Every structure is written in C-alpha cells, then in structure tokens.
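TASK: fixed-backbone design
INPUT:
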C-alpha cells in the first residue's frame, strides 16, 4: 500500500507539471480538463489539469492513455490479486476455503473481467470524458480500489464464515440480478450509440435533442435515467452479505501458550462498518456521480433534458429515487 501511495503522489505530480506545455490547437490534440486549470495549484494537482494525459512507450512506439490505463489495469487487477492472496491466507491458516470467501472472490473477479472485456465502454464514462487525471483518480486507482474494495476478502481470510446452501443461493440470486441489470442496460446503451438501427435496439423509443443526440425513453433506459447504477449497487450488496454479522477479536490461546485464536464472542456486528463499508460508500459514489451527470446533461441539452426528465422520471431506482 505504501508503494502504491508513493506512486500515486508521484504520478499526480508528473501529470500536473507536464500539461503546462499544452498550447491551444496543438497537433497532438492534448486538452486541459474543464475544471483542472483553476489557478489554485493544490486543487488542480488534486483534480487533474490534463483531460487525457498520454505517454509514448520507448522502443514500442506505442501511445498509452494514462487515465484509461490506470482506470482498468493496476487498480482492478490489484483488487483481484489481493482477493486471491487473502483466499490463500485462509487456506494456509485453516486448511480449507469457505464458500463465503470463494463467492466474494468469484463475484469480484467477474466484475473485473467484465470491465476488461468491455473496455471500450469506459470511453463514454464521466471519468474519461469530463475529469482530469490528478491525485484524486491516481489515488483512487492505485490505492483506494485494490485495498478498500478487497476488505471483505481480507476479513474472511482471518475469520472464515460458512454460509451454507440456502444463504449462498440468496447471495447468488442477488448477484445475478445485479449483474443482469448492469450488463443488459449498459449493452443496450452501447448498442444504441454504436448503431441505432441494430435489430436489438431499433424498436426503442427516444427523443432527439437540438444537438442531434438521441435520449432513450424506453427499454432499460426508460425505467430510470441511470438504471445501470442500480445493478452496480446490488452487486455491491452481494460482496458484503457473505460476511454476515461481521466481528471478531484475536485472543491468546489458553491451551497453546504463545499462539492466538480468533473468536467472535461479544463481537457480533462490530466489524459491520468495515465489511459493509463498500456498500454504503458505493451508494454515495453512485448518487454523487448521478448528480454530476444530471448537471452535465442539463447544461448540454437544456430544455430537451427537462422534457426527457418528464418522460423518464426516476433517477436510479424506479418508483423510489
């Protein structure tokens, strides 16, 4: 974690200094982020001055988008590597792998593999299109994602939880529902953007804005303006629920002096703020992202967005929010 933290600070400093050479109309098509050149050095360093900083790898003569690379590679892959390490730790400590840590690791690996397989889809996300790359994203990609998102596996590696068939079925159902909503809604949006005449989306209703963009008013995107966030959040529940009423303490062993034992006595629920943190944090993150996206779309589409919101009334959860 310390190494990743140092790298994130160094990277943020590098991408802060480098854009000072960017000139309007440059042939490399480099662009400063809208909110990244406020004149406040600390703020710009944190939020990111350049929209999509790129570097050319020597010898390979290949250009790499730093933000897109960091978004998917170090953080997401590091997340799964840590999950696997925690699973190995559980096996080393107890001699078996529990169903709880197995499904958490499989679910999170599925999420990461889905992101990597559908990599082109991130090019339309708000992080890529609007935000500069500074400490906020560097820290998030290199430190926050791998070390915070793997907290459930870390907990289960020390305190094994056996769920049993019934509870596993419930969690699998929740994960399946979340993934179905998440993947189907995103696939529908990407298919419509790529080719509105595709048979799978040609029947969908939409309104055409003054800018020429089309906003879907039926299908998945007719149920809520950010329906994919609901699927994302439901999957977050399936990562946390396998830890049950989390809580344990490590005490000296009476039978074997010099060793320690893990016990849950008097600790039920004590670790819930940690193991269920992802679920709460992700809800806040998604709502904040949704609000930013709403603001951006309102500026971009004006009255067309107001008309769209009257048709698609719900933001994330149909009938609730």
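OUTPUT:
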């Amino acid at each position: 974690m310390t190494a990743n933290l140092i790298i994130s600070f160094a990277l943020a400093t590098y991408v802060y200094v480098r854009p000072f050479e960017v000139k309007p109309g440059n042939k490399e098509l480099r662009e400063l982020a809208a909110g990244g050149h406020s004149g406040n050095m600390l703020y710009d360093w944190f939020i990111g001055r350049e929209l999509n900083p790129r570097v050319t790898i020597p010898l390979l003569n290949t250009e790499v988008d730093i933000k897109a690379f960091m978004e998917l590679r170090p953080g997401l892959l590091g997340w799964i590597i840590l999950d696997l390490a925690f699973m190995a730790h559980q096996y080393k400590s107890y001699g078996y792998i529990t169903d709880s840590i197995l499904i958490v690791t499989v679910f999170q690996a599925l999420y990461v593999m889905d992101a990597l397989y559908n990599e082109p889809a991130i090019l339309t996300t708000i992080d890529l299109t609007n935000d500069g790359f500074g400490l906020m994203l560097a820290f998030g990609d290199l430190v926050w994602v791998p070390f915070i998102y793997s907290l459930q596996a870390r907990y289960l590696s020390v305190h094994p939880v056996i769920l049993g068939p019934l509870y596993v079925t419930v969690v699998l159902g929740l994960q399946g529902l979340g993934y179905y909503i998440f993947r189907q809604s995103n696939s529908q949006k990407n298919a419509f953007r790529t080719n509105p005449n595709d048979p799978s989306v040609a029947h969908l209703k939409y309104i055409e804005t003054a800018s020429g963009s089309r906003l879907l008013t039926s299908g998945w995107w007719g149920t809520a303006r950010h329906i994919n966030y609901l699927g994302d959040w439901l999957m977050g529940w399936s990562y946390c629920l396998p830890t049950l009423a989390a809580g344990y303490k490590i005490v000296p062993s009476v039978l074997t002096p010099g060793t320690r034992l893990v016990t849950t006595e008097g600790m039920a629920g004590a670790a819930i703020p940690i193991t269920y943190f992802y679920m709460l944090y992700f809800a806040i993150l998604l709502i904040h992202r949704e609000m930013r996206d709403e603001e951006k779309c309102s500026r971009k589409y004006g009255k067309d967005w107001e008309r769209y919101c009257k048709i698609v009334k719900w933001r994330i959860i149909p009938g609730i929010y």
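COMMENT: The mean pLDDT is 89.
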